[in-house]
Amino acid sequence: MLLQLNDISKNFGGLQVLQGVNFNVRQGEIFGLIGPNGAGKTTVFNLITGLLRASSGSIRFNDDDIGAVAPHKITERGIARTFQNIRVFKEMTLLENVVVGMHDHLNYGVASMLLNLGGFRNAEKEARERALELLSWVRLDHKAHMLADSLSYGEQRKLEFARALATKPKLLLLDEPVAGMNPAEKTELMSEIVNIKQRGFTIFMIEHDMRFVMGLCERIAVLNFGKIIAEGTPDQIKNNQEVIEAYLGKEEA
Ligand SMILES: Nc1ncnc2c1ncn2[C@@H]1O[C@H](COP(=O)(O)OP(=O)(O)OP(=O)(O)O)[C@@H](O)[C@H]1O
């Protein structure tokens, strides 16, 4: 197992947001976490990436306990994420945005690279070539030299995705990757994610768009009021009575 959550609970003061959460993400798969608004999904990502600490339970990545590891160290260990609210540098080009994402993994500082200082030329050239390749994975390479500000909302999401890949993560966490995308952009992103998986990346996403999650994920866990109520293949999840009730309410179900 690449990632294991064992009996995780999280309280904010008196509010119990997660209770006894258990699930695993396997190497090489596309895994999805779904659940109604406020179920605790983003809290799970914040625990995995070290922004929050669990009240109890353990999180293991590559068999190491990462429950008390600081966020930047989590990135170094190979976990990258995108956020629900877009965080691209709008006044920088797409290429520069991705190069910035790499900086942890290069020996030279970003500032030096961007300033073209002699000894750093090679590192800069390599970084730019790699950034261009990552942009091509999300079909944004033709816009590499444009400012991020000129992108549509959906394109900015894809730029964030490319930037997260720049750290060469073993595990990529995507928080609502298709939020704000139009249907054509969603379909495109679906095939791009499949391609990225085929390159050996493991992907774990939170997503509300059922067509997207069901079409893409190999396994899905469902969180409701802080508890995992189901885990399985998309077909198992679609037909699970407790899941249907969580989404529709008992009356309608
Ligand atoms: N830092 C915090 N302090 C206090 N309460 C918090 C904190 N972070 C989250 N919560 C609460 O925890 C609960 C779960 O929030 P979380 O954002 O994890 O849900 P979610 O499933 O990601 O929701 P959504 O789908 O709407 O993004 C909510 O009631 C939220 O208000």
From TrEMBL:
Signal peptide: none
Keywords recorded for this protein, A-Z: ATP-binding, Cell membrane, Membrane, Nucleotide-binding, Transport
UniProt source species: Herbaspirillum seropedicae (strain SmR1)
SUPFAM superfamilies attached to this UniProt entry: P-loop containing nucleoside triphosphate hydrolases (SSF52540)
Domain ABC transporter: 3-250
UniProt entry tagged with the keyword Kinase: no
Record GO biological process: D-alanine transmembrane transport; L-alanine transport; L-isoleucine import across plasma membrane; L-valine import across plasma membrane
Name this protein carries in UniProt: ABC-type amino acid transport system, ATPase component protein
Annotated GO MF terms: ATP binding; ATP hydrolysis activity; L-isoleucine transmembrane transporter activity; L-phenylalanine transmembrane transporter activity; L-valine transmembrane transporter activity
GO cellular component: plasma membrane
Matches recorded under Gene3D superfamilies: P-loop containing nucleotide triphosphate hydrolases
